[in-house]
Amino acid sequence: MTSTTESTTSHPKVLIIGGGAGGIAAAVNLKHRMNIHDFVMLEKTDALGGTWRNQVYPGCACDIPAPFYSFSFELYPHWSRDYPPQQELCTYMDFVADKYDIRKHIQFGVEVQELRWLNDDQVWEYTYRKLDITPGKKKLQWDPKQSVIAEGLKGRANVVLNFSGPFNWPYTPDYPGQERFSGKFIHTAYFDHSIDLTDKKVAIVGSGPTAIQIAPEIVHKTKHLTMYQRTPNWIAQLDNDPYPRELREKFVRDPSAVKARRQMLMDQTEKMWGAIGIAGSRSALRFQQRCIDYMQSVVKNKDLWPHLTPDYPIGCKRIMWDCNFLALNNRSDFDMVFGPIQRVTERGMVHKDKVTGEEVEREYDVIIWATGWGSFSFGRTFPTYGATGQELYEYWKMKGTPIGFMGAMVSNYPNLMVAAGPYGNVWTSFIELIEERVDFACRWIQLMCTNNIQSFAPSEEAEARWERRCREGVKPTPYAGKCVSYYKFSWDSGFGASGKQEEQNGFLNVGFFPGLPIELRMAVEEFKVEDFVLSYRKNGLFELPPPPPAASPLRLNRMYPSANIKRTSVTWQATSHL
To answer: Which residues form the signal peptide (predicted)?
Structure first.
């Protein structure tokens, strides 16, 4: 592999890690906005698409409307509905990669193992290995059993965009006796379609977004389907009929119609956080009541209602959209278990009845782990050593919490940006968030060229100020509620050690920004150079690449919420003095 510093050009050499939506957006912008053509993207599987390429369980679909869950520079007229299946998202990302000709910059089957900042040379050195991705080989991004072709390889880059994403390690419970089970286990993160569920007694462990998508898809095959629920979820009604033919045809012939739908969906997202952003507010309680009313209108058995009603504020965990899940509770071949699982046996699982306290064993042929992910990795999917020589995880432990600046960078880790750092996620389309990060990166690369900058990193003071604001701003929001959520961080969650989030003393959300999406966007767009520690080049200047040709297909089309949409929140504005 050619190192990203081995080039005759003198602009900053950029490494992109990850071939999901973040990597694709970064590659398109570097090539067609910055006119940089010698960047490298490393993707450890054999295809683009990230999580959407790898998750293939029955019923897998987007729960953010696709016209908003797409790149602003490539508004897409071919969605079948607002919430399309996984295959359509993969098709879209492949289409973008081909249209903007970025595949030539991608090296598949390459996994980064370590990042290390070299103070003497002021560059990042990355260590990587090559994996066997020939057809038939295991190649899921989180598969620990991949065949290694070569390892210990090294390269260098001036700027690293670690866009490996927030979900990197599927969580699998470790109940006593799992090794004794005589049936089959399946994890939804790497669903094995070769296992026939027809006329089988099947258990789904988990009741989150994945579980409620898969259950309606497989219940017609199974002899009996049981779902084990630890915590109820707020479930809202979903209208997801296919677009009428006339509307699909209009989207194809009239790009402004696609743009208008995207604008409407963006506005709805901003308004939704405005409604639930203060836990216990009248608008939040109204939203909760609508969810309760909907659930009770669908589920006929009133004895189930208390078990399906959360006791935490809406928004503490991901709000779920009902894809025909609640109606399963009216079927004779489906039921739910609400007591905690005690152990796995040779024949099935034992749980403690929530009412009687007695242990009950149920027999199964297949157990499906729909248990999601460990907490956010915040871009730390491999050891990362910064300017002080300290590994990022140890730096956070020293600080007592994951900490960063604007959700994009960490002090003492120069020229390194992530897609979803601490307090860096918002109540919006993740792709909209990604585009904010890519824009931030492109503006810094331009500053490096125009101001002779070798390295940049947020100052510890700026980072601490941002963390104080976020920590205080979270307190009145639903994110601070008493719930177990992937929004929250677990110290057990490392690369390969996906600890599930647990409530503990002093436990705080560090995943989500405590304000409106537009507030985080404006903060990132209006960053101040004085909040960063800079070093300058001693041997020659970085050159600013010439503007891209007029024929470039890239047309930036970023949108803002409509003028009538509220753009400030109490939770964020109240912390402005910190």
So the answer is: none
